[in-house]
Structures are given as structure tokens and as C-alpha cells.
Automatic annotation (TrEMBL):
Lineage: Bacteria, Pseudomonadati, Bacteroidota, Sphingobacteriia, Sphingobacteriales
Organism: Olivibacter ginsenosidimutans
Domain of life assignment: Bacteria
The protein, known as: DUF1735 domain-containing protein
PROSITE patterns: PROKAR_LIPOPROTEIN
Amino acid sequence: MIKQYNVYLICAVVVTTILSSCGKQELRPYDQPFIHIMNNEASSATVNYQALDVKSYSIYLSSAPLTQNLEVTYQLTIGDGLKEGVDFERITKGNSLVFLPGIYDVPIRIRWLPSEHFDPDKDNTLTIELVSNNLGITMGLPGPDGLQKKFVITKVK
């Protein structure tokens, strides 16, 4: 009788454990799609003032597979120490990029040019900022800080 009671007790404990682990308060995985720009997990980079180089700055999509095109609009803000055509050239034209279904990163390409009249006391930054998209996806990392919504490139001596 005691053996049978132990078996019933063990079964009751197992069933109770299984049933108590299932409930309305289960956590669902975090799955908020977002678009961000970074390079080696950083939100900034430098380029030498004498560089003659083409650099790619990728915009990334973190999402489940999309079934339609995602158009992302961005803007470039140029500091007063840089001039387009003198310090850099935009290889990627326009201010929007399209992510086709299955594509998760699209680059913005910039050709950096040597500067003969570089002034280190001026604002020698070029900022790429994500502005909007056609699917209402979060711009930058999810959260109140909006990290990786901007990428700042500084030309340095």
C-alpha cells in the first residue's frame, strides 16, 4: 500500500509540475523588426584626410523574411569642414535604398578623396541618418534611445 501511495504521489508531483509550467504568462520571443546602420557594431568611424578609398556603410534589416520591397529613406548631413566633390563623392546616388525580399543589408558607398586644405578645427563629419521607410519598421535599435539610427564618419588628420 505504501509503494502504491508513493507511485501516486510521484505521478501527482510530475503532473502538477507539467501543468504549472504552462500558463497564460508565458513569455513570447522578442520579435520587433528594425533597420539600423553600423560598422563593426559601432555607430561611428574615421577616415584619414589623405585617404583615396571607396568605403561601404551598410544599412541592415533585422526581420523575419519580408514578402514585399522595403524602401528606406536616409539623409546625409555634411559638416562645414567637408565639401562634396572635394573631400568625398557619393557613389550611391539619391536618398533611398530598396531591400528586396530576402535581402538584409544594402550599402551606401562613398569615395573619400585626399584633402589639400583640411582644417582640423572645423566640423569634418558626414552623418548618415535613417529617416523613414514604407513599412513602418522601427528605425534604429528598438528602445527609447534609437541607437544605430545615425552613423557618423569623421575625416581626421
